[in-house]
Design a protein that fits this description.
This protein is an all-beta fold. It has 2 helices and 56 strands.
Length: 734
């Protein structure tokens, strides 16, 4: 508290004494806001997070919200965690000893909070309880002791300035009172839907196999589980346990290979009969054929079990492409945030390995070396070719992962055995700021490292911050690129294949990009605004570092729900990025890597040089599979549209408007070309040799297509060619 606030308190007390005796009813509560109206009344709304009116309970995509009173509350999960904003009350006079309120949601200080302001300064603040995956949307009572501010003018400001996990705030029933409110008995943070957690059960299990197997239910009750061996914490995560042994939907696993022959202590909030099913085994138990489940993508990578979101840590080393990703191994929803790990010789055929980085080390000193303090949020990977970090052992180069340890800062982990094992750097965090998702690159001209990272510094707004380092450990902030949001990406590409004519590209999670110059410290765009190649539920993409052939290959998170599967979400096909000169200037193109064509079957269904008219409007192929690479080239006539249908799905080329499924598409000489990659639960559309790229979920996911057809609408067109190549499964082709 500064002297100004102390003085304000004294002045307020003098005003109270001068006012004389308290009026009748002085002990009655004074309502500030209950949020039961059709709008916020006199409260000032800023940003997008609050909407135009109070919420009526749980919002779309949100866990069950409970603990509020009446029908309305402040709930900033409008559109998810990403939107931000402020809600400010009209000015009022403090006349009681306490301000009491219900609060829940995110626990990020200064970011998801409710503040009391006097003379424009924050004198008291409160947050929700949640900062990590799991948690509960339960609102509970909090109190501010405001005795020393009685008589002062004040405002209340509800703030949502966070966009990551638990980036929202819930508030209800704000009032002045003579007595503080008592806490309600509420669910523990690990509860689901207001359910309290089950009592903790403890088992000792002899580790005889590589894995510890755990049963999971898609409708289970979330409970915390810890695994310790001796005095070392090995795993600490939330699991969606079934209510009984009859409610198992799938099995997950934790790798325990390094502890074979030892005894593990397993503690879990789960039913006794469920805990009795935990076992050590060399085999992962599957209720469906592995990699052949009904909705398993066959040439888009998806993890064996659990939830995935952002691709992370992508790099190449000595014949292997390494893919890491945000991973919840013990449920179908976002939680825990391990780093999954897979390798491939060609970016098509993948082998999944043990998870690389682990969660929830908290303040435990004797934890597994790969365990972060909290969550291992998004980041990137690279190869320390010059051993700048000093971790190299022998001739094996060190793999370095840069990631956000939630609530701690940007952190490093390293591997000296090709990604098999990882060590959390003891000097973490190496960068402390308001942001996340570091992209680590080596800048050869300056012989230094660069981290491009999403930043929320108030002086710059949402931006990408640039840091540099010679040794990976000491970092200097160099510049900021305003107007970008999370999962920064920065890379260099030749223009039109000319290695003497290169440009840099800055890219963010929403797939918007800019082209410009970069001197190792500052990026300068060549143009105003941003451009776009990728569309649809394509998010948080990343490119491989240290590529062997100079290609820049990108993979994005395909945000596609896969109902009732033991896994959820997937990744896009890898795309080769290029810069090309167009009539609109230099633009980026994204084309599927050539390696994918190795999955094509020898024979294709095809038609060439055929005119479609009102009398013969359709080309039709009968098919009995659901894995296809379809390539179409049509020349515009009088037809307004060409429509490609495959099963219950359609891709529309608007010849009149120059659009492909609402994406802009150039048609030089009146010729439109596009390609559709059809996989079991999803498909991707590539137009104009990579000028636009769209990811989408199939309406009939998992079902044979039956037919593939091309139709002309509103006149005539010439089909220069249509080819439908059946594709092999990358899983079965390994």
């Amino acid at each position: 508290m500064n002297d100004r606030h102390v003085l304000a308190g004294i002045v307020c007390l003098v005003l109270i004494l001068l006012a004389g005796p308290a009026p009748a009813g002085a002990d009655d509560d004074i309502l500030i806001a209950d949020f039961e109206g059709a709008d916020y009344g006199g409260w000032k709304v800023e940003g997008e997070a609050f909407g135009k009116a109070p919420a009526k309970g749980t919002l779309g995509g949100q866990m069950h919200v409970s603990g509020f009173e009446g029908k309305g509350l402040v709930n900033t999960f409008l559109g998810g965690d990403r939107p931000t904003g402020k809600l400010t009350s009209p000015e009022f006079t403090i006349r009681r000893d306490y301000i009491r309120f219900l609060i829940g949601g995110g626990g990020h200080k200064g970011k998801t909070c409710m503040n009391l302001l006097i003379d424009g300064q924050v004198v008291l603040s409160a947050t929700g309880p949640n900062t990590q995956p799991g948690g509960s949307e339960f609102l509970n009572w909090e109190n501010w002791d405001v005795k020393k501010y009685k008589g002062c003018k004040a405002v209340i400001q509800i703030v949502d300035d966070a966009s990551g996990g638990w980036g929202h705030i819930n508030v209800d029933q704000i009032s002045q009172s003579s007595t503080p409110a008592k806490k309600k008995p509420g669910p523990a943070p690990a509860g689901r839907g207001g359910q309290p957690p089950l009592p903790e059960q403890v088992r000792e299990i002899k580790i005889t196999g590589k894995y510890l197997l755990l049963p999971v239910s898609n409708k289970g009750r979330r409970g915390r589980m810890t695994v310790t061996v001796g005095e070392q914490l090995v795993h600490n995560l939330d699991c969606d346990f079934p209510a009984s042994k009859d409610g198992i939907d799938w099995w997950t696993y934790l790798n325990m290979a390094e502890y074979q022959g030892k005894t593990a202590k397993v503690a879990a909030n789960a039913a006794v009969e469920v805990c009795e099913l935990f076992e050590s085994s060399d085999q992962v138990r599957h209720l469906q054929p592995l990699y052949d489940e009904a909705l398993r993508p066959q040439f888009h990578f998806s993890q064996i079990r659990g939830w995935n979101n952002d691709p992370n840590g992508m790099c190449y080393y000595d014949g292997q492409y390494h893919l890491f990703w945000q991973c919840n191994p013990a449920g179908r929803k976002w939680a825990n945030m391990y780093w999954g790990h897979a390798t491939s010789p060609d970016m098509v055929h993948w082998t999944e390995h043990d998870r690389a980085l682990r969660t929830f080390g908290d303040d435990v000193k004797n934890r597994h070396p790969s365990m972060a303090v909290k969550n291992c949020f998004s980041g990137s990977g690279n190869v320390d070719v010059h051993n700048t970090g000093g971790w190299q052992k022998g001739n094996e180069k060190t793999l370095v992962a840069a990631f956000t340890d939630t609530g701690c800062g940007e952190s490093l982990a390293y591997s000296t055995d090709r990604g098999k094992t990882w060590t959390y750097y003891e000097g973490n965090p190496v960068i402390k700021h308001s942001g996340r998702d570091p992209k680590l690159i080596w800048y050869e001209p300056g012989k230094h490292w660069v981290i491009a990272v999403y930043d929320e510094a108030k002086e710059h707004g949402r931006n990408i911050a640039i840091y540099t380092s010679k040794d990976l450990k000491q970092w200097t902030r160099e510049s900021n690129i305003p107007g970008y949001f999370e999962c920064a990406e920065i890379f260099e590409l030749p223009v039109d294949g000319d290695a003497t004519k290169k440009k840099w590209v800055i890219f963010a999670a929403d797939a918007k990009y800019a082209i410009g110059t970069f001197d190792g410290k500052k990026f300068t765009p060549d143009h105003p605004g941003k451009h776009q190649v990728h569309w649809g539920p394509y998010y948080a993409s990343q490119c491989f570092s240290n590529p062997p052939d100079g290609r820049v290959v990108q993979i994005g998170w395909a945000r596609i729900e896969m109902p009732d599967m033991p896994f959820n979400q997937a990744f896009s096909v890898p795309t080769n990025l290029t810069l090309r000169t167009t009539e609109d200037g230099v633009r980026m193109f994204a084309t599927p890597i050539k390696e994918l064509e190795r999955l094509r079957m020898p024979e294709a269904k095809a038609e060439r040089n055929r005119e479609l008219t009102d009398q013969s409007p359709e080309i039709k192929f009968d098919v009995d599979d659901q894995l296809f690479d379809i390539v179409v080239t049509v020349k515009k006539g009088t037809a307004s549209r060409a429509v490609l249908r495959f099963g219950a799905n359609a891709v529309t080329c608007d010849l009149a408007a120059g659009k492909l499924d609402e994406m802009p598409l150039k048609m030089p000489g009146g010729v439109a070309s596009f390609r559709v990659l059809v996989d079991r639960p999803m498909y991707e559309v590539i137009g104009g040799d990579g000028a636009c790229f769209k990811t989408a979920g199939r309406r009939d996911m998992g079902q044979p297509l039956g037919t593939i057809s091309l139709t002309a609408e509103g006149g005539t067109l010439t089909v220069q060619s249509i080819e439908a190549h059946r594709m092999k499964s990358a899983w079965k082709d390994r």
